């Protein structure tokens, strides 16, 4: 005599349950098409007014804030040699001095790898070692109200627009841009 398995012991029942769970998650996470156009218009007006008050590119000496972090590029120096070494062909060295201040109530981490130098669509790290700079920016943490300042050196193209990009989180696309040249 053959014994019948309970409904929850059959493999195809669990496949159907998993499939149903994926469908429900997909429906819950999909954009809501029933939102009224008035709500969409109000939201887009708020977003556009917020964009209008936020600068996209800052100059040397200007302070920019993102995620309770104030960043100021206080100085930029260029050089064709660094520690008796030459940059790549068509490049020059940029030594950038930054000041970082935590304006929030939580501890923040900072790191020179949060900064990139951008020229001609290419972003590179500021990872050159400048033995003449005694105040290189290291990594660390800032408590509420804490401030740190330091220099970073990298190389980039000599012509065109050169920018410093600060990204406070590796997992975010939000960033600050400072025009160096």
How would you concisely characterize the structure shown here?
With 181 residues, the chain is an alpha+beta fold. The chain has a domain at 56-179: Immunoglobulin-like, CATH 2.60.40.
Protein architecture, described:
- With 181 residues, the chain is α+β, with helices and mostly antiparallel strands.
- The protein has a domain at 56-179: Immunoglobulin-like (Sandwich).
- It is 20% helix and 35% strand.
- The protein contains two helices and eleven strands, in the order H-H-E-E-E-E-E-E-E-E-E-E-E.
- A five-stranded mixed sheet has the order 1-11-10-6-7, with no helix packed on it. It has a four-stranded antiparallel sheet with strand order 2-3-4-9, with no helix packed on it.
- A hairpin with a 2-residue loop joins strand 2 and strand 3.
- It is elongated, with a radius of gyration of 26 Å.
- The termini are far apart.
């Amino acid at each position: 005599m053959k014994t019948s398995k309970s409904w929850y012991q059959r493999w195809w029942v669990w496949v159907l349950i998993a499939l149903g769970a994926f469908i429900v998650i997909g429906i819950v996470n999909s954009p809501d098409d029933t939102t009224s156009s008035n709500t969409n218009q109000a939201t887009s007006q708020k977003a556009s007014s917020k964009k209008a008050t936020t600068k996209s590119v800052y100059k040397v000496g200007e302070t920019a804030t993102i995620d309770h972090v104030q960043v100021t590029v206080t100085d930029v120096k260029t050089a064709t040699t660094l520690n008796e070494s030459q940059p790549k062909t068509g490049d020059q060295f940029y030594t950038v001095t930054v000041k970082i201040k935590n304006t929030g109530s939580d501890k923040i981490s900072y790191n020179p790898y949060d900064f990139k130098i951008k020229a001609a669509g290419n972003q590179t790290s500021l990872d050159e070692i400048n033995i003449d700079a005694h105040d290189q920016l290291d990594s660390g943490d800032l408590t509420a109200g804490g401030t740190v300042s330091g220099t970073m050196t990298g190389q980039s193209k000599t012509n065109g627009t050169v920018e410093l990009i600060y990204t406070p989180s590796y997992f975010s696309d939000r960033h600050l841009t400072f025009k160096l040249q």
